[in-house]
Design brief:
Blueprint (H helix, E strand, L loop, with lengths): L2 H12 L3 H28 L3 H19 L3 H9 L10 H26 L10 H19 L6 H21 L4 H27 L24 H20 L5 H18 L4 H17 L1 H19 L4 H12 L2 H19 L10 H4 L14 H6 L5 H31 L11 H17 L9 H22 L8
Helix pairs in contact: 2-3, 3-5, 4-5, 5-7, 6-7, 6-17, 7-19, 8-9, 8-10, 9-10, 9-11, 9-18, 11-12, 11-18, 14-17, 17-19, 18-19
């Protein structure tokens, strides 16, 4: 027992119920309200109305998070898909992406510490320690290599904040109940993304300019600035919705969930991106293994419908898909960029060139590859299209292993835990396999997409891994909590 724990327990015995009955539900909101009221008064006095509105919204969000810290993830998931990452919406990103989930984690840890329950205190395990080590390595490399200190905000947005989401899932001991609470959000966001994506292709003039992205009119990207980002997000949602449908009785709800899954698969086709198609095929194979009869029937029906549409209404779209499948222009550019990334890694294989330095040095390593010559655009503006090469080049083998060690660890423990889970039901071995499908799908898409710029998919990835960790640990260490 640590000295800190002993002191807290002693104080808790002398002041029974103070922290849980008075401080957290009354005192902490009061202190937060006083601080926000002062900030709001200053903003109103200076007529900063655009800043005052988020401050007003912070109050109910803060009260909800204090009562239920996991709600920070729910709010983040509901808000973030709709806002592009640029200066226009920087306050949304600052408030929701950078502060909300860390606030939830802080309250969750504070609640566990001050209430001193009988369950084990939260202690970082090896997986969490490697994540902390990766963050420390990234910060050190930023300053050692002479990067501007503001680069640390990118490190936070791309890695540290997703890590925080993982830790919040772990600290909240989020399992079946919390995941079920996310399903309605998944359904609504999935439907909205599908509708926006299809409208952007068939009636682009109907969409507001906020969602007119770089590939607008060329590929379907929904509200994301990348077909790979959009495709993976859909995969993440539809696999959970499909699993939920398979665990419902026959009825309107089950049919609607299956139709939503089918709509998501159609939208994966409209990304016109080969790795998204490959990831989608992998997911379908996984679902065929888990739910053979239903998935076979569904795949046959979708294939039949798409075949009919390919020679009628969607003839142009299928012709474009074939063109994209056989296109060599982007493939040739990526051969040059991929070779440059490999040379960068081999030049400094241990610790890399430093976080955020890929685009700073990659042009030095571009060279002719067979019959392919680097173009002026490739040299000046070309960047990595491979997440793994980016990490290896910037952080070296050490950083790469630190980052992905938690994935490797929980995959190994998953194999050990699977036989101990029930075969049927929502919270079963099938659910554990379902949760791994988006993880592997992201590794597939990451071969041709640099996920440094995909804050939303990156964070969902680590939230998902947090649920995997909780599910596996509940079976391997049953005294740490119940199975559900």
């Amino acid at each position: 027992m640590t000295i800190q724990s002993t002191i807290l327990k002693s104080f808790h015995r002398k002041s029974p119920g103070f922290w849980s009955k008075h401080f957290l539900p009354i005192g902490l909101p009061l202190l937060a309200g006083l601080g926000l009221a002062s900030s709001l008064a200053v903003l109103i006095a200076n007529e900063a109305w655009l800043l005052a509105l988020p401050v007003v919204l912070l109050v109910p969000m803060a009260l909800l998070i204090i009562k239920y810290p996991f709600s920070a993830i729910m709010i983040w998931m509901a808000v973030m898909p709709w806002f592009p990452f640029d200066g226009t919406y920087k306050y949304v990103y600052f408030t929701v992406h950078r502060l909300l989930i860390p606030l939830g984690l802080g309250i969750a840890l504070l609640s566990r510490m001050l209430r001193v329950k009988e369950h084990r205190p939260v202690r970082p395990k090896l997986a969490e320690l490697t994540m902390i080590a990766f963050g420390a390595m990234g910060i050190i490399s930023i300053f050692v290599t002479g990067q501007h200190w503001k680069t640390t905000t990118l490190l936070h947005d791309r890695f540290l904040m997703p890590f925080t989401a993982y830790w919040l899932v772990r600290a909240s001991n989020a399992r079946k109940q919390e995941l079920r609470r996310l399903l309605p959000l998944m359904l609504l966001i999935c439907l909205a993304e599908c509708v926006i994506g299809l409208v952007s292709w068939f009636a682009p003039e109907a969409l507001p300019s906020i969602w007119h992205m770089r590939l607008f009119g060329d590929r379907v990207t929904g509200t994301f600035n990348g077909a790979g980002f959009f495709g993976w997000t859909l995969i993440f949602f539809i696999v959970f919705l499909y699993h939920e449908a398979m665990n419902r009785e026959k009825g309107a709800a089950k049919t609607f969930l299956i139709l939503t899954f089918g709509l998501g698969v159609v939208c994966l086709f409209f990304t016109f991106t080969r790795t998204v198609w490959g990831a989608g095929v992998f997911v379908l194979l996984g679902l065929l293994y888990l739910y053979r009869k239903t998935t076979v029937v569904l795949v046959i029906m979708m294939a039949t419908i798409m075949l009919i549409l390919s020679v009628s209404v969607l003839a142009n779209e299928f012709a474009y898909a074939e063109e994209r499948l056989n296109s060599k222009n982007t493939a040739e550019a990526r051969v040059i960029l991929s070779a440059a990334g490999k040379r960068m890694f081999l030049a400094r294989p241990v610790f890399g060139w430093g976080y955020g330095n890929y685009d700073r040095y990659d042009w030095r390593f571009m060279a002719r590859e067979g019959d392919i010559t680097p173009t002026e655009w490739t040299i000046r503006k070309g960047t990595s299209h491979n997440t793994f090469l980016t990490i290896l080049a910037e952080m070296g083998a050490v950083g790469f292993l630190l980052l992905y060690f938690p994935v490797i660890l929980w995959l190994g423990l998953t194999i050990k835990a699977l036989p101990r889970l029930p075969k049927e039901g929502f919270w079963s071995r099938r659910m554990l396999i379902i949760m791994w499908l988006p993880i592997i799908a992201q590794f597939v898409i990451a071969q041709t997409a640099d996920l440094r710029f995909a804050f939303y998919p990156l964070t969902l990835f680590w939230i998902n891994l947090g649920f995997i960790a909780n599910m596996v640990q509940s079976r391997l260490e049953p005294d740490n909590g119940t199975a559900n």
